[in-house]
Amino acid sequence: MKYKLICIDMDGTLLNDDKVISEENKLVLKEAHDKGVHISVCTGRLFTSARNFSEMIGVKTPIIASNGAYIREKDEEKVIYKKILPKETCRKIYEIMRNFDVYKFFNTFDIVASEGDFPDWYTYTRFNEGLSEEQKVKLEVYSDFDDFIESQDEMLKFVAVSKDIEELNKARKALSVLDDIEIVSSAPLNFEINAKGVSKGDAAEQLAKIYGLDRNEVICIGDSGNDLSMIKYAGLGIAMGNAEDGIKLNADYITDTNNNDGVAKAIRKFVLLDE
């Protein structure tokens, strides 16, 4: 079998627009896993959030979380890889971002800190509904981030969100003075900051090395800007039918949409070799 590792983005890729993993996607992932293929969920989400969805797949899946800053086995405490945002970098980010009227969030592997109350539409506010305390993402509110930054030794990501695209673009441009960060977008109304060198592509490469695999044995599937690095890294980079144009242009293959089992169709074609 040529392909031995599949790294799959979540939102807009493995999850449909209702944030559900279809039964067809689950079935095909299990078939591939049973044939000896490693499956990894690769997301911008926190580890805690990604773990809950990973459990729905029903197979052992190492999780690449926070855009590649954190890799950990779903069922173990063992962290395979992590690359944090240093405190001084976090201070610089916040000092710049104070000047912009956007929602601001700092993330660890299990905490989201917000400057002010979380909006009703916020992803993890909805995500936590109906979950046990162990499954929930911890949501913490601060009047400013100074205390939170000082209290955390393993900050993984900063996120800015706004419906005001012009304000968001101004903030992103202002951050260009920092040379020790990576900035990507996982959706049209946000941008996300990680430590320099962090990307889904780098994380996929790290995981491939752990398994003793060459990049030509790796498939990566995604739809958004933060997936571009892994699409370029993979031996076979697959864009979803609903992917951004830049992802499609850099992909080796374009599958169906996330609402039409595009992940399952791609894996059947290239791994299970269904006609």
TrEMBL record:
Superkingdom per UniProt: Bacteria
GO molecular function, one term: phosphatase activity
UniProt xrefs under NCBIfam families: Cof-subfamily (TIGR00099), HAD-SF-IIB (TIGR01484)
GO CC annotation terms, alphabetical: cytosol
Protein name: Cof subfamily of IIB subfamily of haloacid dehalogenase superfamily/HAD-superfamily hydrolase, subfamily IIB
SUPFAM superfamilies for this protein: HAD-like (SSF56784)
